[in-house]
Write a sequence for this structure.
């Protein structure tokens, strides 16, 4: 059957723009906020080694599959899966896999924007010297003052949603591509500047590198391995429709395998650079490496507050965090925008307003879960915790598993060979074994661990 050469939304101007965009989608709060603290909680270097292995065996094959489905379908995830199911003589219910991605991205952005709004607030706090000489109690008090004030938190959430929708409303080349061309190089420059700043801590920098890269397998537990598997899966933005819709804008002559490997390497490099920037500061100030989720908003401000140039470099760090969140946010909402434009015959600008308002409205549940709604408990969780659990632990693993099954087992081999265009002997066979067996089993284990059945 004939298929369009490009999406009705246009396409990326080059392979490198796609790589920047997909890396921007993958690089987010998970790399700069979550990766350092879970590495700290799980002993450092040994955890990093297991994580890298999981990226290679789980993340890259699944990313190749998701990009392949997007480029072959050339539509939003729902329509792409519907078309591909028809093409491969499979049940039309496979379109609901597309819906899982669209809805997951929408739900994630609703709370992601609230956390990103907090980072935005911290940019101004840090540059203005609020953290100079701050104590642990003072840092905690600053964070509590922000999160316990619903009006203040709502204002930052609103600003971040507006920033995101302004970009997506301008289309692939006029909005997404323009932002990505600026924000991704800026993100890497900021990271390198912060690593240079951390290098000035002398022996503490060496201590940070030793912690990050020297494997001590005695500190690994079964939970550590499961955490590494889970983070490898989630850090690449897989299973939420973002990579699929970005793949639909990918030029036909681009190698999916090479692009996916490059994206995975860039994403991992950002996470490792973030660790190289953060851990020396933590050691230099006698702070805890396993400080958990509070590492960024409560622990690091103490470090910046007691170091020369801390206000400047602290501000740059939180600006980096905002840039990473922004590049991810536009990819999270893009599947929903594409669906509205393709299926409801509305302009991209109007679709952005509709999707943005709905996301903002749902985000109120997360805003209030930090303050006036912290007692709104469902299934033992606050609204923020429930949304995070539902998406990260249930929707994304199931979406990733379904993508692996569809691409590995249900698509004709001729279709996947044509789209991937990789060597039909060893390279294709390695991908086929990984996507058919290794990736699904790993995702199932991660899913069962997440819902408390194993681990």
């Amino acid at each position: 059957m004939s298929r369009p050469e490009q999406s009705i939304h246009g396409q990326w101007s080059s392979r490198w723009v796609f790589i920047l965009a997909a890396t921007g989608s993958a690089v987010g709060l998970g790399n700069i906020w979550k990766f350092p603290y879970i590495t700290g909680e799980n002993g450092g270097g040994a955890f990093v080694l297991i994580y890298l292995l999981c990226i290679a065996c789980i993340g890259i094959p699944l990313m190749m599959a998701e990009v392949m489905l997007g480029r072959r379908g050339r539509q939003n995830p729902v329509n792409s899966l519907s078309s591909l199911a028809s093409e491969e003589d499979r049940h039309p219910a496979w379109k609901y896999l597309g819906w899982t991605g669209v809805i997951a991205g929408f739900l994630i952005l609703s709370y992601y924007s609230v956390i990103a709004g907090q980072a935005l607030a911290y940019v101004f706090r840090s540059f203005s010297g609020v953290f100079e000489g701050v104590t642990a109690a003072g840092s905690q008090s600053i964070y509590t003052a922000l999160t316990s004030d619903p009006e203040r938190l709502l204002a930052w959430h609103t600003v971040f949603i507006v920033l995101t929708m302004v970009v997506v409303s301008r289309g692939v080349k006029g909005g997404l591509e323009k932002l990505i061309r600026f924000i991704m190089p800026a993100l890497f420059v900021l990271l390198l500047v912060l690593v240079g700043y951390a290098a000035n801590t002398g022996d503490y920098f060496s201590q940070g590198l030793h912690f990050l890269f020297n494997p001590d397998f005695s500190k690994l537990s079964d939970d550590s391995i499961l955490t590494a598997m889970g983070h490898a899966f989630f850090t690449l933005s897989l299973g939420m429709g973002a990579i699929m819709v970005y793949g639909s804008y990918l030029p036909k002559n681009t190698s999916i395998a090479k692009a996916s490997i490059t994206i995975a390497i860039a994403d991992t490099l950002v996470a490792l650079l973030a660790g190289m920037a953060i851990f020396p500061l933590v050691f230099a100030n006698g702070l805890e490496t396993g400080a958990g989720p509070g590492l960024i908003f409560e622990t690091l401000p103490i470090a910046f507050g007691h170091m020369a140039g801390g206000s400047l470099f602290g501000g740059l760090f939180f600006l980096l965090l905002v840039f990473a969140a922004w590049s991810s946010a536009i990819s999270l909402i893009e599947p929903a925008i594409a669906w509205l434009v393709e299926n409801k015959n509305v302009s991209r600008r109007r679709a952005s307003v509709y999707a943005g308002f709905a996301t903002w409205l749902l985000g109120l549940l997360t805003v209030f879960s930090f303050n006036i709604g912290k007692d709104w408990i469902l299934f033992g969780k606050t609204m923020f915790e429930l949304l995070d659990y539902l998406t990260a632990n249930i929707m994304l693993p199931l979406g990733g598993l379904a993508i692996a099954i569809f691409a590995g087992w249900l698509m004709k081999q001729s279709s996947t060979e044509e789209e991937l265009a990789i060597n039909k002997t060893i390279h294709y066979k390695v991908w086929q074994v990984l996507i058919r067996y290794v990736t699904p089993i790993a995702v199932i284990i991660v899913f069962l661990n997440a819902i408390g059945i194993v681990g």
Notes: The CA atoms of residues 76 and 339 lie 5 Å apart. The chain has one domain: 15-450. The radius of gyration is 21 Å.
